[in-house]
Amino acid sequence: MGEYSGRVALVTGGARGQGRSHAVEYARRGADVVICDRCADSDSVAYPLATMGDLAETVRLVEDAGGRCMSEVLDTSDRTALTALVERATAEFGSVDIAVANAGVSVASPVQDMPTEMWDEVIGSNLTGVFNTIAAVAPGMIDRGYGRIVTVSSMLGRAGNSNTAAYCASKWGVIGLTKSSALDLAGHGITVNAVAPGNVSTPMIHNDFLYKFMRPDLDAPTANDVAPIFTSLHAQPIPWLEPEEITRTVMFLTADGSAHISGIVIPIDAGNAARVTG
Ligand code: NAD
Question: Is the CA virtual torsion 31, 11, 25, 247 positive or negative?
Answer without folding.
Answer: negative
